[in-house]
TrEMBL record:
Belongs to the OB-RGRP/VPS55 family. Keywords: Membrane, Transmembrane, Transmembrane helix. It holds the Pfam family Vps55. One of its GO terms (cellular component) is membrane. The lineage of its organism: Eukaryota, Viridiplantae, Streptophyta, Embryophyta, Tracheophyta. The chain crosses the membrane at residues 32-55, 67-85, 91-113. It is a multi-pass membrane protein. PANTHER family: LEPTIN RECEPTOR-RELATED, RH04491P. This is Vacuolar protein sorting 55 (VPS55) family protein. It comes from Abeliophyllum distichum.
Length: 122
C-alpha cells in the first residue's frame, strides 16, 4: 500500500511540475509534452497486455517490436518537445528545465512501477 501511495505521489509531482512550467511563465506551450505522457504507456496497454515486462525482453515479433518502438519514440518526444519549443523561443529556459525535471520524475515513477510489478507481492 505504501508503494502505491509513493507511486501516486511521484506521478502527481510530475504532473504538478508540468503545470507549474506553464503557469509560472504564463505560457501553455509546454503542455505539449503532456501528450507524450499520455502516449508513453499506450503501447504497454495495447500490445503488451498491460504489463511492462515485454520492454526488457529480447523476444521479438511484429507487435512487440512495434510497441518497443512506439514507447521509445514517445520517450524521446518527451525530451525533444521542450528543446524544440525552447529553440523556437516559444518557452523560456526555466520552463524547459522544469519540463526536464518533470520528465525525470515521470521516468523514475515508471521504473519504480516496473520494478514493483516484477515482485509477487502486488
Amino acid at each position: 500500500m505504501i508503494r502505491l501511495a509513493g507511486l501516486a505521489f511521484m506521478f502527481s509531482a510530475s504532473i504538478l511540475l508540468q503545470i507549474l512550467a506553464c503557469a509560472i511563465y504564463s505560457n501553455w506551450w509546454p503542455m505539449l509534452s503532456a501528450l507524450m505522457y499520455v502516449l508513453v504507456p499506450m503501447p504497454c496497454l495495447f500490445f503488451g497486455g498491460g504489463s511492462t515486462q515485454f520492454l526488457m525482453s529480447r523476444d521479438g515479433g511484429g507487435w512487440i517490436d512495434g510497441a518497443k518502438f512506439l514507447t521509445g519514440a514517445s520517450a524521446v518526444g518527451s525530451i525533444a518537445i521542450p528543446v524544440i519549443l525552447r529553440h523556437a523561443d516559444l518557452i523560456g529556459t526555466g520552463a524547459m528545465f522544469i519540463e526536464f525535471t518533470s520528465f525525470f520524475i515521470f521516468v523514475c515513477t515508471f521504473l519504480c512501477y516496473h520494478r514493483a510489478s516484477l515482485d509477487d507481492e502486488w
